[in-house]
């Protein structure tokens, strides 16, 4: 039976906004034999992971654990737990992933109010605060780092304004966690969702979330113990708020599984948890501040190189997201042909974008393990060669010199 | 920073109904560097996985792919896609996981009708067919292998009866897929959900599903393209059936991601997919029939050994699930103390059970990679020693002799 060959993926330099390359230590962690889900060694690993996640999210929250799914499973878990049908949800939209928040909130039965900014920019905090006062929503849901446009939305003022008004705020920090500061407690964020396969550099498959007791109160009011596990002492349903519409993503049940009660829900993703734990160890060993500085350094070198090549950057510079750099595809160049040649000849992957930006910009990620000097220099040299190959005129050799200037302390 | 040590899980003999031990080839597959999600090498891996899943499910269905989550994510994806609010769903319940189907269906807004059997037995097909005629549901949702009680529900007649009546049938085959026959097409099953961490012996994290065009028609009538990805040519919402209430588990969007359109949804779980692909290769290399026969052989040896030890089996023998063997905890023995000693002294894990069976039975799995002669013999010897240690009187030495008789062809 040789119809399906041995797995033999090519080695890639992955410079997209995720998924990105994975540290060999994390890859190795996944190759360990598994433990049973209630094995004391495994529940200890679950507890250690929660402890490390609190540091990552910069929070003293009791609850910080991964939802077992890709990033949007964490977003949906938070929104479906917080939104009861008819709740008013304010969503500021400045790129694709704002629309995703809208879509999920609508499916949860929310009355959604959106405010929008042209793609490539973000909101002034005052604009969002004004909308809070105008619409008085139950929940504000907002994207921190928008990978579709490469922008970052400042959240400190918005978070505090929500707290003052007793409005819950849920933040999609999928693209930013582990790469740029996400200060859950200092910014008064009630629920935050991080991503695994971006700045944490763990393979896609888990969505770390954290939430505080304001969120937990809301969840507990909607909680049901699973029918097949009930002990007969539960409070009757009629005294509860409407049930959470997903069982798989029900945070009120998930926290009983992650808490000391260990009430069976799903079977925890053993190997993915090994990977997440190792990825978190790497983050904490490096140090959050040092990690953020590393991301800034390589962004600086990349941007210097691209500028020296004469390429135009997309979007408002004042709100550029450190870990995603967007460049306009030059006039007359076929963006997909450039991406294919980069992949086929140089083994480098960069990204295109979505919706209105499809075919107009390239997006280059400098995230996590992929964010290093070798990758940045490799990419700049390759992109220059491929652009020349596509007939684009540019100052040959300038990009790498400009980037080296940065690395040599220029 | 040495607060969190190197990952160093103990090696366990895992004889539970899942998660079970993982073949080193599958563990190795997860340690390969990752590819980007739209890398042609990766989409080829996605396609190969679909092809192998069709063989596993014994179907010619177009759609067979993993949902990115643990088993119940696949169940919820199927139910939330098939159930519109107010739809009538019939659920025959004969153990814990029937209640899970009920709970998920209720959260989808179904009018749920249940019929129940005492735990430890299953339904006569005629009983279910009578209920179909009495209640005339839109959907029948039923568990194939109930791990909580170790029973298997025959489905061939029930599936055909549903087809004759134009009622959809969705089957939870989480515990059975890859261990006992699941004949999707021959039994006229419209949607089937398999499990990764049981007889497939892949770590928990993916839920393979398959469904036919009857299901697809229902999904397409409810489909929406994600707001941030719309091209402006979509059919207006008002002409559609009610939207699927989950975005993450929306099969109508997932099939656009798994299909040639490759419309971005989540970021596929790279390393988990590597694992699933390798796990499927192992299944097909062994051969489905040979694999089923292996599961029967080791069950026979285990049962012979336990019987020789004088232990009582739980449940109706005529519907025993090959891959889970349930035994009554003997009078006066503390079941959890026995389980702890098995784990701490012998590195063997067996399971307790849920709800009304908690504290009353042990459940021993013989699934996938864990289902082998070494494990069965190791377990029987260890269980005998631990029971003697707990003051239980039994014919010492008989269990291993009885099992060896089976392996020697007795």
TrEMBL record, chains A, B:
<feature type="domain" description="Aminotransferase class V">
    <location>
        <begin position="38"/>
        <end position="352"/>
    </location>
</feature>
<dbReference type="InterPro" id="IPR015422">
    <property type="entry name" value="PyrdxlP-dep_Trfase_small"/>
</dbReference>
<feature type="binding site">
    <location>
        <position position="363"/>
    </location>
    <ligand>
        <name>substrate</name>
    </ligand>
</feature>
<dbReference type="Pfam" id="PF00266">
    <property type="entry name" value="Aminotran_5"/>
</dbReference>
<protein>
    <submittedName>
        <fullName>Aminotransferase V</fullName>
    </submittedName>
</protein>
<dbReference type="InterPro" id="IPR000192">
    <property type="entry name" value="Aminotrans_V_dom"/>
</dbReference>
<dbReference type="InterPro" id="IPR015421">
    <property type="entry name" value="PyrdxlP-dep_Trfase_major"/>
</dbReference>
<keyword id="KW-0663">Pyridoxal phosphate</keyword>
<keyword id="KW-0032">Aminotransferase</keyword>
<keyword id="KW-0808">Transferase</keyword>
<dbReference type="InterPro" id="IPR015424">
    <property type="entry name" value="PyrdxlP-dep_Trfase"/>
</dbReference>
<dbReference type="InterPro" id="IPR024169">
    <property type="entry name" value="SP_NH2Trfase/AEP_transaminase"/>
</dbReference>
<dbReference type="GO" id="GO:0019265">
    <property type="term" value="P:glycine biosynthetic process, by transamination of glyoxylate"/>
</dbReference>
<feature type="modified residue" description="N6-(pyridoxal phosphate)lysine">
    <location>
        <position position="198"/>
    </location>
</feature>
<dbReference type="InterPro" id="IPR020578">
    <property type="entry name" value="Aminotrans_V_PyrdxlP_BS"/>
</dbReference>
<dbReference type="GO" id="GO:0008453">
    <property type="term" value="F:alanine-glyoxylate transaminase activity"/>
</dbReference>
<comment type="similarity">
    <text>Belongs to the class-V pyridoxal-phosphate-dependent aminotransferase family.</text>
</comment>
<dbReference type="GO" id="GO:0004760">
    <property type="term" value="F:L-serine-pyruvate transaminase activity"/>
</dbReference>
């Amino acid at each position: 039976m040789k119809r399906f060959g041995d797995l033999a993926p090519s080695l890639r330099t992955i410079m997209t906004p995720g998924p990105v390359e994975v540290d060999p230590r994390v890859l190795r962690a996944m190759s360990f034999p598994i433990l049973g889900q209630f094995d004391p060694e495994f529940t200890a690993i679950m507890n250690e992971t929660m402890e490390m996640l609190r540091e990552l999210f910069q929070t003293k929250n009791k609850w910080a654990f991964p939802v077992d799914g890709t990033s949007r499973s964490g977003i949906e878990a938070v929104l479906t737990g917080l939104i009861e049908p008819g709740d008013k949800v304010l969503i500021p939209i400045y790129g694709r992933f704002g629309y995703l928040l809208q879509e999920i909130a609508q499916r949860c039965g929310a009355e959604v109010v959106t405010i929008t900014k042209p793609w490539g920019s973000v909101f002034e905090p005052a604009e969002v605060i004004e909308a809070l006062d105008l619409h008085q929503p139950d929940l504000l849901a907002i994207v921190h780092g928008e990978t579709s446009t490469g922008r970052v939305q400042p959240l400190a003022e918005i978070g505090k304004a929500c707290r003052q008004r007793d409005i819950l705020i849920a933040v999609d920090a999928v693209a930013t966690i582990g790469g740029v500061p996400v200060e859950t407690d200092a910014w008064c964020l009630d629920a935050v969702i991080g991503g695994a396969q971006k700045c944490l550099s763990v393979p896609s498959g888990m969505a770390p979330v954290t939430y505080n007791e304001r969120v937990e109160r809301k969840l507990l009011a909607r909680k049901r113990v699973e029918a097949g596990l009930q002990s007969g002492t539960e409070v009757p349903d009629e005294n509860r708020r409407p049930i959470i519409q997903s069982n798989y993503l029900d945070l009120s049940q998930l926290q009983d599984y992650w808490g000391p009660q260990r009430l069976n829900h799903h079977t925890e993703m053993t190997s993915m948890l090994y990977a997440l734990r190792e990825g978190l160890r790497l983050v904490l060993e490096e140090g959050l501040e040092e990690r953020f500085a590393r991301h800034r350094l390589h962004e600086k070198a990349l941007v210097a190189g691209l500028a020296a090549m004469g390429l135009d950057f997309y979007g408002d510079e004042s709100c550029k997201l450190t870990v995603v750099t967007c460049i306009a595809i030059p006039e007359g160049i076929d963006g997909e042909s450039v991406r294919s040649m980069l992949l086929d000849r140089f083994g480098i992957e960069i990204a295109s974008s979505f919706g209105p930006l499809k075919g107009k910009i390239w997006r280059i990620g400098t995230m996590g393990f992929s964010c290093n000097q070798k990758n940045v220099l490799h990419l700049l040299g390759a992109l220059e060669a491929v652009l020349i190959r596509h007939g684009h005129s540019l100052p040959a050799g300038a990009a790498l010199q400009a980037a080296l200037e940065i690395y040599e302390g220029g």
